[in-house]
Design a protein that fits this description.
Layout: E1 21-27, H1 29-38, E2 43-48, H2 53-64, E3 69-71, H3 74-81, E4 89-97, H4 102-105, E5 115-119, H5 124-136, E6 141-145, H6 154-159, E7 169-172, H7 175-184, E8 188-192, E9 198-199, E10 209-214, H8 222-227, E11 230-233, H9 245-262
Parallel strand pairs: 2-3, 5-6, 5-10, 6-7, 8-10, 8-11, 9-11
Antiparallel strand pairs: 1-4, 2-4
Helix pairs in contact: 1-2, 5-9
């Protein structure tokens, strides 16, 4: 099914920007390592309760950046974090800084890499897994609403396997308004819907894409659906006819990127 995407969209005015910061503990060897490599200036202190070569590499890099390190036993670290899912490594960050939507809207042309919009995702592990897949598959950013959505937490950072150190996350007051602003900037919104009229494989993604993924229980809200240009489903041939939100997002992104490479969009423009 070929589609014509020649019409131009431009923003009608300057968007309002809302940036929030919140304190954040991250934990797990790989998340701490990736944050240390990408944004050492964000780390206030590292807590280490392990002694092996990988931990020593983290501690050496922390020393190189003059980041304080506290040696603690694992039980003390578990007590501090409230759980023991930390692999003996944690870091306290100054804040997690969400990117401004304006950074996506002020480009002279829409980006070739897809954007991922998340409508009411509640599970931090799903959010982290989507960020990981989006980073791996070359998405440009993840956009989520301030309300009715899980924010970036230590659990999200852990589930992303360090991808949050590299992929921008934008938090907006109104997801539908953000979708409309980016549509005006040249993006086409493709919503994942188990009842979608078309297969995800029937659409040609030779345009800037905003992939819209719904929450785990209810999917896309009615107004979000209405704002999408296309609603597509991932066809299945097995007994189970739905996918976890993070798996569905990864399948869709892989197909979008596969086609965009075929159409000439670079995976890393």
């Amino acid at each position: 099914m070929a589609k014509n995407f020649s019409k131009s969209r431009r923003p009608s005015g300057k968007p309002s920007v809302d940036i929030r910061e919140q304190a954040l503990w991250i934990y797990g060897l790989n998340p701490v390592w990736e944050c240390l490599r990408a944004h050492p200036q964000n780390i206030v202190e590292i807590f280490c309760g392990r002694d092996d070569p990988r931990a020593q590499a983290v501690l050496q890099l922390a020393h190189d950046h003059n980041i304080p390190v506290s040696t603690v036993d694992r039980r003390s670290l578990s007590d501090r974090l409230g759980h023991d899912d930390h692999q003996g490594m944690a870091a306290r960050l100054k804040a997690f800084r969400y990117q401004a939507l304006e950074t996506l809207l002020t480009r002279p042309e829409p980006g070739q890499r897809p954007l991922v919009f998340l409508d009411g995702l509640q599970d931090p592990h799903n959010l982290g897994a989507i960020v990981r897949s989006a980073c791996f598959l070359g998405a440009d950013a993840v956009i989520l609403p301030k309300d009715r959505s899980v924010p970036v937490t230590g659990a999200v950072y852990k589930a992303s396997a360090g991808a949050l150190a590299y992929l921008p996350v934008v938090q907006v007051t109104n997801l539908v308004r953000a979708m409309e602003q980016l549509k005006a900037a040249g993006y086409w919104m493709v919503g994942l819907d188990v009842q979608g009229p078309s297969s995800i494989y029937d659409l040609e993604y030779n345009m800037p894409v905003g992939l819209v993924v719904g929450g785990e229980a209810t999917g896309l809200r009615p107004l979000v659906k209405k704002t999408c240009d296309f609603l597509v489903k991932i066809p299945g041939t097995g007994s189970v006819q739905s996918l976890n939100a993070s798996v569905a997002a990864a399948v869709a992104l892989a197909e979008i990127r596969r086609q965009q490479r075929r159409f000439g969009a670079s995976l890393h423009p």
